Description:
heterodimer, A: mainly beta, six-stranded mixed beta sheet, 12 strands, B: mainly beta, seven-stranded mixed beta sheet
Amino acid sequence: AQSVTQLGSHVSVSEGALVLLRCNYSSSVPPYLFWYVQYPNQGLQLLLKYTTGATLVKGINGFEAEFKKSETSFHLTKPSAHMSDAAEYFCAVSDDDRGSTLGRLYFGRGTQLTVWP
Amino acid sequence: DTAVSQTPKYLVTQMGNDKSIKCEQNLGHDTMYWYKQDSKKFLKIMFSYNNKELIINETVPNRFSPKSPDKAHLNLHINSLELGDSAVYFCASSQDRGENQPQHFGDGTRLSIL
């Protein structure tokens, strides 16, 4: 089965600073990878996804992530944090049995991002 | 227009009761899901339906029974509620069951068992 590790359950940055949220995965086959954001009392929204092709993926709200197979990582970055970025961020990997096509997602435990003025 | 809508948003009830949560999506998607998010924000899939057919049934007590009357609706019925059932339950949908399909989430149903 797949698994996802998000290093750091809480990350705090100042407004305008670089945001780096770490995600490592385990997979026996090339994975599909996702980042979702959850604002308070809301559901998850897709930020970006990696399926195939270019390893640097751009998402919404200025976020991007790079798939590094050698490091089994998919870290999320944003050059300059904004107050509105404060939320919970989840990394997810899809089902590893390519024949199953079940669309099962395995989530990390989330990273709470706080942005200080 | 709300893409994935769940009702109710909050549900407070006593142990032993039976309750249902409804979910509807207007995206024309074929696949729908139920997730449970615990108090530590950990998200785990419970069930998935594709075109009204059950395709994922994780290790969930059989007190939980999903029902999909059509591909736009996926309801969750819970019998004999227990304290450990307190959580936020999210419904989601995707275009189809492919692994590369992003999932669209509802705003969640916050279930509290007294």
